[in-house]
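Chapter summary example.
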Amino acid sequence: MKKLLLYGSLCIIGMNAMNVQAQSKYKNKAATNKPAATNTQPAKANANNAPANTRTKTGGSKYLNSNAATSGAAATDTTKPGTVISSVPASTAVSVRYDTTIPGGFDTKQEVSLRSNYAVDRNLIKERKPLEYDYIREDDQVWSEFVWEEIDGREKINQSFIYPGKDDNGDQRFFSILLNAIKNDSVVAFSPESDQFKTPLTAEQVSNLTTGSLDTVDVADPVSGVIERVITKKPKFSPDSVYTFRIKEQWIFDKEASRMYCRIIGIAPIAKQVVAGKSQPRTLFWVYYPDLRKSLVKFEVYNPKNFAGRMSWEELFEGRFFSGYVIKTTMNNPGDKYLNGIIKDPLMRLLEGQNIKEKIFNYEQDLWNY
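The structure predicted for these 370 residues follows.
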C-alpha cells in the first residue's frame, strides 16, 4: 500500500514538473517571437523636430522636463546663472540677421547688384579724390574765430541729409554714410564728451551706440512648415531720428590770399532718444572732418532737379550748400558757453546766431575800400 502511495506521489510530482517546463518553454518561445513593445501613438511633432519628453539632468532635481529643449530654446540652470545646459538641436536652422523692419536700419548688410542699375557706366565716382587744402601760414591769419553750428535735416534745403534712398554704396542717409566710413574706410570716431578729439572709439563701440538688445523670433516656412529661428538685432532708435548734425568750424582771414576761409574741423551726429518718457538729444560721436573727406567724395548728394547733376558730399560741405544755425562761438564769449546757456528765448537765440554770421561777413567786407 505504501509503495502505491509513494508511486502515485512521484507521478503527480513528475506531471507538475512537466507542466511547468512546458509553460516555461512556450512562454520563452512567445517572448522570442513577439516584437518589442513600442508606443504606436506618435509623439507630437515639435516645431523644431526635437524629441518628445526630452529630459535634462540638473543638479537641483533628479529629472527636469525641459520645455526649452523641446521648443528649441536653450535651457539654463537656475543654480548656476549663465550656464547653458541644453542647446539648440542640430535640426533647427539658426541664422543671425540685422533689423529689417525699419528701412535702412543700422548695420544692414549691403546687397550687391548682379546687374547694372544705370544705362551709363558710372566709373568716375570710384576714382574721385578730394583736393588738397591751400596751406595757410600761422603768420598770415590776421583774424580767426571758432563757430559751432547745427544742421537740421528737416529743413527743405537740408533734406538730402535724411534721404532714405538706396544706391550702389548703400543707404544714402548721411548718418549711414558716417557709419559706413567708420566701418569700411577706417575713419576714427571720437568720444562725444569733448569736441577736441581726445578719446578714440573703436568700430565696435560705435556699433554699440546704435544697436540694442537681441530678440529671437521663430519664423515658419509657409510651404514646408520648417521653423527657423531668427535672431534680430533691434536698434536703440530709429534711423529717421538722426536728422541733426553738429559741425565745428574755424573762420580764418588769410592776408596773403586776401580772402576768408572756412575750414570744417569736425562733425557729430545727434540722435533723439527717449529718457524717462522725454525725448532728449544725445551727441553720439565726433568725426575729424579732414579724415572724412576721402569717404565723402565717393557719395553723391540727392538732387531733386537733375539726377545726373548731383554733387558729392565733400563738395556740399566745401561749398556750404546747407543751412545751419549757430549754437556757440568764441566771439565775445569769455565763459565758453552755448547760446542756450546765455539766452533763454529760442527766437532770440536764433536771431543772435544770425547776428554772429553777419559779424563774420561784415569783417571781411570792411577790409575793402570801394
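To summarize the output: The first helix runs from residue 2 to 33.
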